[in-house]
Amino acid sequence: MAMELRALFLLPLCFPGLQGQAPGALRRREGDTLYVQCPYAPWTTDSQTKCWCLLKDGRCQELVNTYSKQSRDRRIIINDDSTTETVSVTMVALKAEDSGTYFCAIYKSYYDYPRLRTISLIVFRELLQWELDTLTVLCPEGSGAWCRGQAECTVMSRQRSSKQSEMKSLQDRVTMQYHTQGAFVTMKNLQIQDSGVYWCAPGDSRHTRKMEVVLSVFKRTQQLTAKESGKVSVQCHYKIAEHSTASKAWCKQGEGKTCSVLATTRSESPAANSTAQEGVRIQDDTQQGIVTVTMEQLQVQDSGVYWCALQDGSGLLRMEEVTLSISKALPPGAFPDSGSQSQDVLLGDSCSGNTFLILSVVLLLLLLLALLTCIALGVRYYRLLLRTGIREAEDTSDRAEGTAQPGSTGRRESSQDDSKGPAYINLDVQSSPSPEDPLYCNVELSQAPRNPQHVEYAIIAFNPPPRASRE
């Protein structure tokens, strides 16, 4: 057996083609898909069985081969393309526990798996938490340390027995407890500065990542405004089961990360960084899990950032962050300052867009209505002119020379020389005679020439005017 193991160890050194490629790290998010292609080695044949292995204890833990083509959980599929001489492996629905070293190999015997390609797979789990939440992670079997850092491992906790897992203070917030399936890591009272990359590492190596976690912690915030000389009340919520017995504090954040305590629920004297302030009261309702803070007689200089925090001898842990803005009170009859005017201007600007759109639509409708009205009036005026022209033409044709017009005054019109032609008479008929009745015209003696050569008689009959039927 020793000779066989030595032969297997020396085989890649004697034949470079048998040596696998250098490990290349691949990062995938939990739930993603991994696709890997492994070209054949020059000495590989199509009939040989190819495998996808997990490196465990320096040996191949076979997950799937080209004979079965699919793993038991159906998350891994392997294909052998003899045309391109390439083996392709697909892993779907990746889990954080899938992190490890994998390689494509040729199956020769139980102990002989010449490698085609080796990769280092890191599957990270994204976790989103609020401040003061509790994070629990189950590290795979064989994990002995909980590390933090992107490249180098900063040990946050090591595996302990159940009796050693009790935390001494709020700042001692990370424990790692042994379990039959691995090791449970617990991080309590999370803070925003806890955001980062964590991983489970074996007890004998801090460079091997068995499982990786990307943690993002968010803080709860409030924004309040008040008037000078007024008061403000703030409520902060917490989990009763975890923090009902802890002391609560109200502090104001200064330069850097320091926060000066203004009020606390502790019965003993405040800590060294405490600055008691008059007009500030704090009440803790442990039945509902609510801390209520009241500040009275506010001043402009009270504006700033405050914390509702848990407090013990080791320091403060933020529950919620409150941003307080105090505006200066105005005397009676005074006008708002430029700051308030600018707010009004901003408010007016926010509404001007919709107002401009509405006015534009109304003006467009009015313009269209005016245009339609002008077109209608123009058409009506044109029809009126056309009708008036027809009537004038008819009147002109009816009033031809030598024709009597009913309704006209009776007078005699003659040419410049009465002796050279007959007289023309315009008749004024007061009543409309029957079309069958003749009409006789008499000429007075004063209107007749002295020596008439001849006398003409005219009989005029009336027919209904043509325009009467048109109207």
Walkthrough of the structure:
The chain has 471 residues and is of the alpha+beta class. Among the domains are: 121 residues, Immunoglobulins (Immunoglobulin-like, Sandwich); 88 residues, Immunoglobulin-like, CATH 2.60.40; 107 residues, Sandwich (Immunoglobulin-like), CATH 2.60.40. It has four helices and 25 strands. Strands 1, 3, 4, 7, 8, 9, 10, 11, 12, 13, 14 and 15 form a twelve-stranded mixed beta sheet that branches. The relative contact order is 0.07.
Rg for CA atoms: 54 Å
Oligomerization state of this entry?
A: single chain
Within the CATH hierarchy, at the fold level, what is the topology of the domain at 2-122? Immunoglobulin-like
Q: Summarize the amount of helix as a percent range.
A: 10-25%
Sequence stretches where pLDDT stays below 50 over 5 or more residues? 1-23, 162-168, 270-274, 338-347, 401-421
H/I helix tally: 4
Query: Shape from CA axes?
Result: flat
Percentage of residues in strands: 35-45%
Distance between the termini: 131 Å
**Tell me, what is the CATH class of the domain at 2-122?**
Mainly Beta
Count the E strands: 25
Order of helices and strands: HEEEEEEEEEEEEEEEEEHEEEEEEHEEH
CATH architecture of the domain at 2-122: Sandwich
Query: Which structural class should the secondary elements be placed in?
Result: alpha+beta
| Largest sheet descriptor | 12 strands, mixed
Question: CATH H-level name of the domain at 2-122... which superfamily?
Answer: Immunoglobulins
**Averaged pLDDT, please?**
77
